[in-house]
Amino acid sequence: MNPVLLIDFGSTYTKVTAVDIDEPRLLGTANSYTTVQTDINNGLADALIKLEQTTGRLDFSARYAASSAAGGLRMLASGLVPELTAEAAKTASLGAGAKVLKTYAFKLTEDDAEEIKKLSPDIFLLCGGTDGGNTDTVIHNAKVLRDIGGDYPIIYAGNRNAARECERILEGREVHITENVMPTFGKLNIEPTQREIREVFLARIVQAKGLSQASELISGIMMPTPSAVMAAMKLLAEGTKTLSGIGDLVAVDVGGATTDIYSVCEGLPDDPRTSLKGLPEPYIKRTVEGDIGMRYSIHGIVDAAGLDRVAEIAGLSEERTSEIIEMFANNTELLPTDAETQAVDEALASMAVRVAVTRHAGRLEEMFGLGGLKLVQTGKNLTNVDKLIVTGGSLIHTEHTGRIASYSFYDEQEDPEALRPRNADVLVDRKYIIAAMGLLSEHHPEAALKIMKQELVKDDTAK
Amino acid sequence: MEQKKKTLVIGVIGADVHAVGNQILYHAFSDAGFNVINLGVMVSQEEFIAAAIETNADAIIVSSLYGQGELDCRGLREKCDEAGLEHILLYVGGNIVIGKQPFDEVEKRFKAMGFDRSFPPGTPPEVDIEALKEDLHVED
Q: Does residue B1 belong to any structural domain of this protein?
């Protein structure tokens, strides 16, 4: 046996996962409260004691960690046009596992400056203009950032023709210059920015978030938790040289405050005559719905889906449904206790996956012109994706995961334009190991893939 | 020092799907030494403007082949002004109106809509290129 420990310092819980990489299998999981205020090792030690109560004493050969503690990797991003470089900047940040507090477009205003000062991000991503294109806006924004002050690092990924000037304007600040997120019109180039974000995260953020105390104990790979999830999903879809993956997939992670959706697929149109509109889509895409969450963002679900719909799915009156929703909103630690609260919780989760997957998925519009019918696709086509991975507390602690998840499927009647998966197998992360497997995949991809294949179980309750 | 390449944003406006002429223009303009951003077919006014802002374009060249050009182009100049592209050169060309109408009248109408130049159907790309070089002060 060769046990390896994977640690996820979450905002509330520190989760530990032990695996054997000799004969790849899960040895056990446990969690405890994250203790970032005092010494983050205390929470980790508690979790380890709990773990070893079930697994027995383990002599770990390596310990790897991911973190979303202390607010996660809090980023702000700015670009020029909302649908172009601002969107590219946001996509790059989300794909690097950041929590994007806000994305700005065009020239930063005085109000924006005040807001940025107040938000004081961990990293600011400064973009705008294609290479050789507009420089005014990004230079203006660099000056605004200089005048605000602060000591967070700034990553510059805008028009390369303005890079040096912005660096001079921001003299005295930590500035990392990298390739433009959109070097030529409509081309997305986000990997260099993502590498830079990760390096800054390792060099600075780990320190600043009180995680460095833990770094003595661990062998390495500190990454933001969403990055670990993305790594796991990429591995699960693609496989390794010797072990095949499961192919294109969509993953949903419904949390208390936000809902994250990941897709690993090209997402091209079914009909090759379809025209594609908008920015090219990344093969691995992450979106975060900040208004969709089971407790802190519970009202966002109701706003998006409608109280009548939630009540209908729960099989309760709107009045009773509303009462239960308020109860959850006012008591974010509350778990369902009886049939009625369970029904409302599941109805909310159903709508959360539906809304979040709809926003993540592309759309196919039919347009009639003089040339007849023309199809136009924006975003990713997920209709052919046949694996849906489900994680997150509200979805893995119920018996009806499949039924809830199936609300994210393609719906001819209600929204025929939304290119959601037509019919997918629902695979459930019952033991909440995905982020851990992403960490493990950095050094032991085969073991990580084998364990995911064992542990992600198909749920047949999909309708 | 080499003169900085002028940037053109081109595309076919509205619900028009005529791709071939636009592709010919793309090659002709590129060969003539312009930096060409080709938005393809079915391009909205907003897409023309967004592309021109990011790339700091010198001209927007709108094609329309299906007769609805006048409707599709209306308001583009005003939107450019609104977006801070007050000085951008606007050209339009193709079958830009319905039926057979004297082109000098058509040209007048598009001029009033803020288009610097209009080109009738069948204009060879060389004519556009000459006009562009003149208006953008490009020396051979």
A: no
